[in-house]
Specification:
The complex is a heterodimer.
Chain A (H helix, E strand, L loop, with lengths): L2 E5 L2 E4 L5 E8 L5 E7 L6 E8 L2 E4 L6 E6 L2 E6 L8 E8 L5 E3 L3 E5 L1
Parallel strand pairs in A: 2-11
Antiparallel strand pairs in A: 1-3, 3-8, 4-5, 4-9, 5-6, 7-8, 9-10, 9-11
Chain B lengths: L3 E4 L2 E5 L4 E7 L6 E7 L6 E7 L4 E4 L2 E6 L4 E6 L8 E7 L9 E2 L3 E6 L1
Classes of the chains: A mainly beta, B mainly beta.
């Protein structure tokens, strides 16, 4: 069966510091991968998606970037965090039927 | 592109009552409609989905209905329990083309014991 992992689970970072969040998927190959952000009490905002290694599409211009160095690894990064980057970051992968499965999320607080 | 609207944004029901959450979509080409449940501090979990070739689907206490003509679909939860309390998201996409899921804004369901 397929499993999706995210780490770290929680992170507190000062403004201006770098960021690296990691997502890995097990039990499938060449999945479509997604990064979402969810502000407190809000809906899901799609940040990036990837259909393959090295292929990244950005949905919203911002302070973040994404990379896919391996088939089942998706990384979200920032060189300098802003206060507005705080939120709950979710990674997801897409199954053959169209549905998306979400990871457990990373709660990021920027102080 | 697709646009999905979800109502209500919050819903409070008494334990044992039914809860209904409604979504409308704009793109008549959409053919796949999943529903997700998100508990506090966790990622959304797929709970039920429906494709455009059926009008209703049931799984124990939850059901989803789809009206393609009116372009709306609904989630029905019967005999609600406190553990049903969560945020629910609807979504829509044209699955065959590999398009993105478009999510509704979410509904916070509170089931009072």
């Amino acid at each position: 069966s397929q499993t999706i992992h995210q780490w770290p689970a929680t992170l507190v970072q000062p403004v201006g510091s770098p960021l690296s969040l990691e997502c890995t998927v097990e039990g499938t190959s060449n999945p479509n991968l997604y990064w979402y952000r969810q502000a407190a009490g809000r809906g899901l905002q799609l940040l990036f998606y990837s259909v393959g290694i090295g292929q990244i599409s950005s949905e919203v211009p911002q302070n973040l970037s994404a990379s896919r160095p391996q088939d089942r690894q998706f990384i979200l990064s920032s060189k300098k965090l802003l206060l507005s980057d705080s939120g709950f970051y979710l990674c997801a992968w897409k199954g053959a039927g169209g549905w998306q499965y979400f990871g457990p999320g990373t709660r990021l607080t920027v102080l | 592109g697709e646009n999905v609207e979800q109502h209500p944004s919050t819903l409070s029901v008494q334990e044992g009552d039914s809860a209904v959450i409604k979504c409308t979509y704009s793109d008549s080409a959409s053919n796949y409609f999943p529903w997700y449940k998100q508990e506090l501090g966790k990622g959304p979990q797929l709970i039920i989905d429906i494709r455009s070739n059926v009008g209703e689907k049931k799984d124990q206490r939850i059901a989803v209905t789809l009206n393609k003509t009116a372009k709306h679909f609904s989630l029905h939860i019967t005999e609600t329990q406190p553990e049903d309390s969560a945020v629910y998201f609807c979504a829509a996409t044209y699955a065959n083309a590999g398009n993105m899921l478009t999510f509704g804004g979410g509904t916070r369901l509170m089931v009072k014991p």
